Amino acid sequence: MARKKRNRAKSFFSIVVIFGVVFAAALFGIQFITKTGFFRVPGVVYYDESLNEAEHEVLTSIFTDEVDLDKDVTISAYESLEKPSLEEGEYIYNIYVPVTDFYSTDTNIDVDEASKLFADAYEGMVAHDMVPVDKLDFNSKLLSINGSYYLDEFDKGAVFRVVKFDSEKFDEEIKPLVDNNFSKQYPAKDDVLTLAQTGVTALSRGMNTKLARVGDARYFSEKIAGFLSGFDLTHTSNESSFTDYATGDNICSDPRFIDTLTDIGLDIVELTGNHNQDCGLEASRQSIDLYHEKEIRTVGGGKNSDEAAVPLNIDEKGNNITFLAYNQSTGGATYGAAPGANQYYEDNAVSEINAAKERGDFVIVDIQYYECSAYASEYEDPTCDAANSSAGDQVGFFRHLIDLGADMVVGTSAHQPQTFELYGDGVIYYGLGNLFFDQVWWPGTTRSLVLVNYFYKDKLLQTKIVPTVYDTNMQTRLLDEETSKWFLQRLINVKP
Question: Mean pLDDT over residues 419-438, rounded?
């Protein structure tokens, strides 16, 4: 009996041992085949040769030796000249835009040049560069690619560099590691504010006579309205008030001319000009009421001196801009209860600029300065191109405003476009010329510069200078590309 019990115990033990061996073999076999447990092999990071040196450095700083992956991951990169639709595991690594020198008249490169420039393989383009869009600022000039300007289109006009992570466990392992590094916010249409600044507008004299013939004030704007109305904000400096007493001989505007301004999508009218009182004080007051009725904001002038001195605060698309505008010694200013332009006083300018800078605003200062007159010939007269061509020290005065803290200074009195320059931490445009007027006899007074400013998070990303022209028909239009380059070079040649 005892022998039988021992045999049964021995058999049970043998079964347990066999089961244990089989179980262990199965367990280790599975681990060996699946590379888990004792036989687990950590996931490996494979860096594709499409990655450049800078990208490789960033990625190795993320996937350090301390990172324990379960599955392999292969990281690669590619670029596109159009904004790609990202698939799982893909991120925009960066967006690169082509730039050149601020004073260059170049405006465009083709796709082949853009690709070579990005690859740093285009030896001939020494004056051009490709920079990350977050490094873009007004000190360099943004170029188009095949006519596509990035800050207008956002899905073209740039090189979109994409990094791709290929892993069986992307969501579980890779996404938590890379989301914070590659889920960046880039400038987009919804948060880039466009502000078009234009020069002198005086819908008067010969334009009144022309309006009597054509009947529709939108005749004067029909060739430029589509361009100017396309921006978030459009500005002009209007020197002429509306009145029924407007004639072909005075600087007063037929009331129908309000349609010219609404046709270009006008949002801001500057009233620093020296002729807004020409038609009488009541016409000046009624014109201000009309602007406000049309939801056009005013700056640099008002119904009295206190109202005229109020800065224009722009708070749109996450951008904060203080717009200041002054009349400096050209007449038309208000000194009390009468309507007129905002007279420049140094103490006021210092106080207003300082207050704006303390708020962190971008500060634009427009100045109605002494006018430059070079109208003696029907031929090209470059006298007014140079900023020192006006009475007084125009260069010194405008630079002084930058020294006070202004970020941009713009002259809005010159009837002919003047030069421009980078100065200190800011930029100066000495004169924008005539957007709308009847001065058709001299080539210089038929032209103007439109400054298209692009703001992002209180920063001026870029100012695109767009020349315009009108002819004897008094219809303003964009200047053709070839003439624009010639004319801008002429202004650049005489910068201070």
Answer: 98
Domains and CATH numbers, the chain: 45-182 (no CATH), 192-492 (3.60.21.10)
Q: What are 101's strand-pairing partners? A: 140
Handedness of CA 212, 215, 216, 222 (dihedral sign): negative
Angle at 157 between CA 83 and CA 78, to 5 degrees: 45
Dist. CA 121–CA 124, nearest whole Å: 9
Q: Give the gyration radius of the chain's Cα atoms.
A: 33
Residues 156 and 150: beta-carbon distance below 8 Å:
yes
| Token pair belonging to 192 | 């880039």
**pLDDT at residue 300 in the model:** 98
Q: What is the pTM of this model?
A: 0.90
Q: Does residue 163 contact residue 55 with C-beta atoms inside 8 Å?
A: yes
Which contiguous run of DSSP H or E holds residue 225? helix 225-228
Which pLDDT score, from 0 to 100, does residue 124 have?
Answer: 54
Q: Which residues contact 98 (CB under 8 A, 6 or more apart)?
A: 109, 113, 114, 117, 128, 129, 130, 142, 143, 145
Q: Residue 115's CB: how many other CB atoms inside 10 A?
A: 17
Alpha-carbon gap, residue 23 to 177, rounded angstroms? 37
Residue with tokens 């005229």: 308
Task: Return all residues near 107 (Cβ < 8 A) that are at least 6 apart.
Answer: 143, 144, 481, 485
H helix intervals, 336-478: 346-359, 394-403
Beta-ladder partners of 237? 200, 270
- The pLDDT-based confidence of 118 (bands split at 50, 70, 90) is confident
**What are residue 299's DSSP bridge partners?**
270
Give tens-digit pLDDT for 430-489.
999 999 999 999 999 999 999 999 999 999 999 999 999 999 999 999 999 999 999 999
Dihedral in degrees, nearest 10, Cα atoms 400, 405, 407, 413: -40
Q: Residue 408 contacts by C-beta under 8 Å, 6 or more apart in sequence?
A: 362, 363, 364, 365, 426, 427, 428, 429, 453, 460, 463
Cβ–Cβ under 8 Å, residues 263 and 222: yes
